[in-house]
Amino acid sequence: MHGTHRDSIRTAxxxxxxxxxxxxxxxxxxxxxxxxxxGAPLRPRVVLIDxxxxxxxxxxxxxxxxxxxxxxxxxxxxAYSGDPHHLVxxxxxxGRATGGGDLLTRYDYGDYLRDxxxxxxxxxxxxxxxxxxVTGIALGPYGRPVLRCATLGPLTADIAIxxxxxxxxxxxxxxxxxxxxxxxxxxxxxxxPLRLGLETRDGALLTPYGHPHDRLFTLGPPRRGALDDSxxxxxxxxKAERLAERITTLLDRP
Length: 254
Fold this sequence. Notes:
Number of strands: 10
CATH class: Alpha Beta
Radius of gyration: 18 Å
Largest sheet: 7 strands, mixed
CATH topology: FAD/NAD(P)-binding domain
Strand content: 15-25%
Structural class: alpha/beta
Number of domains: 1
CATH architecture: 3-Layer(bba) Sandwich
């Protein structure tokens, strides 16, 4: 039976390690806010894993076609809810926008996410970018997630966030050949009632028995169905901020 474990998330002698599967917008925003909350005495090492090495872009923000624009004005797309003009300042400084009402190209927004992630790493350190494919997640001793990585082998983390990209257009998450479907097949997670995504409670994945995991979370497209706005960047940003706060509390728990 897969369940949760209430033992300490970390020890005083080991750097806590949150690992994020998926390096697109959702995973990048999760990493940005986790790093932004990092503080003494024990700073985490955040591992951001992307299949194709397109950290910050994913599929959505990798197109260089200048005709592919964001659907939302720059003023609403900041990475920080407490600094709504962050993106506008970045774009203005680079000559890519003149005001908050402008629609940036999707490639520009990918540049912004990459630059924002790099700035957090410069300020706080502790970021590791990996190019690999997470094929599954098992639960190790004390319920710690063990990410099965296709190239570099298993990675044992303190916290895992599933932030993979869009699920199959057919809509049945159980048919997903990638991570979300594997988590269901392996008995780690369960689909939400419409079978469009993974069922969660406050961002935590639910076991097949309906119990929230202590160490497994999700963000963005995998939450599709129960949260039909989960792919909108302003909504993902808000959830990433709350998730970072929650994970920081767990990592600091004695």
